[in-house]
Amino acid sequence: MKRNEKKPKDADKESQIGIGTTPMSEIESHPLQPFLPSNAKVLFLGSFPPSRKRWCMDFFYPNFINDHWRIEGAIFYGDRNHFVDVENHTFKLSSILPFLEEKGIAIYDTATKIRRLRDNASDKYLEIVEATDIHALLNLIPECRIIAVTGEKAATALCERLETEAIPKVNEPTSISCLIQGKERKLELWRLPSSSRAYPLAFDKKVEAYRKMFEAAGMI
To answer: Which are the contacts of 189, defined by CB distance < 8 A and separation ≥ 6?
Structure first.
């Protein structure tokens, strides 16, 4: 380029992000520790928490418009708002934690480090940089026999980590065996509909799907 020649209007932008790409975001490490009650029978695995600006509490499924805690409230208490603090636009973490401990429900995600390729909460635009060590989680919860994933990306990431091609269809569990600390463990993999409202399924249908999984675990 000649000294006095002006750069094209978008030249700097294109040199930073590459033509036809989005800006490379920073790598994010998982902000939460795995929640693993010693009596856990079910391990919920999502993909990764949404960005902090969408949190209403410091725990899993923190987006107020995500219906995970409404689904569990409807199943176990017959009240979708059992864990919802409607007035303060948040969830009742002080009720959620003892509930999970009592029932034996563990929670974490399939990625420990990610990049966000878009500024939204969609799994479609998450790049997994570091996958979760699922075997290490299972070693800490020896009674767990069901892994429930919420969403397609979580299901795919889980099966890749467990080295199985048996990716379950929604509400059609698959059975696998894997070695945990040298011991064979039989597991059921359940793929549940996402509790995000972006997933096009009625709330009652999601409740029905989650209820089926909890029944299989002998928890209701």
So the answer is: 146, 147, 149, 155, 158, 159, 164, 166, 168, 173, 174, 175, 176
pLDDT per residue as tens digits for the range 34-91: 999 999 999 999 999 999 999 999 999 999 999 999 999 999 999 999 999 999 999 9
The token duo for 70 is 């409404």
Measured CA to CA in angstroms, residue 131 lies from 37, 175, 219 at distances of: 21, 22, 29
Position 76 scores a pLDDT of 98
Q: In this structure, what token pair is assigned to residue 176?
A: 């696998």
Residue 59 phi/psi, 5° resolution?
Answer: -165, 180
- The answer to pTM > 0.70 is yes
DSSP label at residue 148: E
User: How is domain 22-216 classified at the architecture level of CATH?
Assistant: 3-Layer(aba) Sandwich (3.40)
Please name every residue paired with 174 in a beta bridge, in sequence order, or none if there are none.
Answer: 189
Distances (CA, A) of 155 to 8, 31, 88, 158: 44, 21, 33, 5
> Which backbone phi and psi does 9 adopt, to 5 degrees?
-50, -40
Tens of pLDDT, residue by residue over 128-145, are: 899 999 999 999 999 999
Angle in degrees, 0-180, between the axes of helices 93-103 and 68-77, rounded to the nearest 10:
60
Cα separation, 64 vs 18, whole angstroms: 35
